[in-house]
Amino acid sequence: MRQPPPAIWWRRLGAFVCHSGAMPRRMLVPAPALRPLVQMYRIVEESAPQPERHMLLPEHTAHLIVHSGGTWMLGPGGVAAPLPLATLSGLTLTPAPLLSGGPTRALWAELYPWAARQLLGWSYPDPPLDLSAGAGGPALSAAVRAISAALAAADWDTAVGLLEGWLLARAAQTARAAGPGVRAAVRLYHSTGQARVADLAAELDLSPRTLERQFAQEVGIGAKSLARLIRFETAHNLLSDDPQTPLATLAYDLGFSDQAHLTREFRALGGLTPGAYARLSRLRRALDPGAWLPGTLGDKPVWPPLPE
């Protein structure tokens, strides 16, 4: 009897997808004016004859997603609900299950947490926004319809241009100069989540309590929660890049007290151990070498870009 193809977990710059076939994707850097707000754009395309389940791991950015095709959110008990044409969500502390089937194309804008708050008034742990139903205003609703039509026609340049045009116009209206909370958050990203709140507060000449309050107000998520997500995403990106990385070394490099601490945190956020994740990464690399992307830590190549 022929065995079914093995599941592949691959990274989508901070997310792994459980999938049984190849899915073209690429990453694009936003315009310079948007780089303090938008980490990158992701282009994802798949064509599956039958519905397939995806498991998105927690990430340190919010996702503005516009899609064309069949995609469903999986709720309690595995009940599927159609995904709106465009949504804003993310910054969750647990994996998020999705279901897709047939030809599907999606354009993601990865927003830093403060950008989701400034541009769309969304912050953790708000529920996902349905941007196709007017949650982002009439201009975004119109842009979403045009972007989805461009995706259906596989016109990626037009889709990206429309989304970036809306983001640039919105940023000109609502984006604000970085306050101490955002500056501390940028420092967290550059430290792979290891900077301590007390040290950040001292750098900014604030008390830790004042910084924590301003951080939550400006960034939309607590400093400790964001630091957890940054460290977790850095850990699984590095394991994806090099599944042979010794876990004790990884724990030391990312500031965990020991390997057991890394394992507990990885399991709490990702639902599996770093060892199991590394094994899935080796399988992914063997079956889909093109899915590999460079990692980021210390003097290694940095991708995706860090906030400016």
UniProtKB/TrEMBL annotation:
Family annotation (PROSITE patterns): HTH_ARAC_FAMILY_2
Keyword annotations of the record: DNA-binding, Transcription, Transcription regulation
GO molecular function: DNA-binding transcription factor activity; sequence-specific DNA binding
TM segment ranges: none
SMART domains the UniProt entry points to: HTH_ARAC
Residues of the HTH araC/xylS-type domain: 196-280
PANTHER family in the record: BLL1074 PROTEIN, HTH-TYPE TRANSCRIPTIONAL ACTIVATOR RHAS-RELATED
The protein, known as: Transcriptional regulator, AraC family
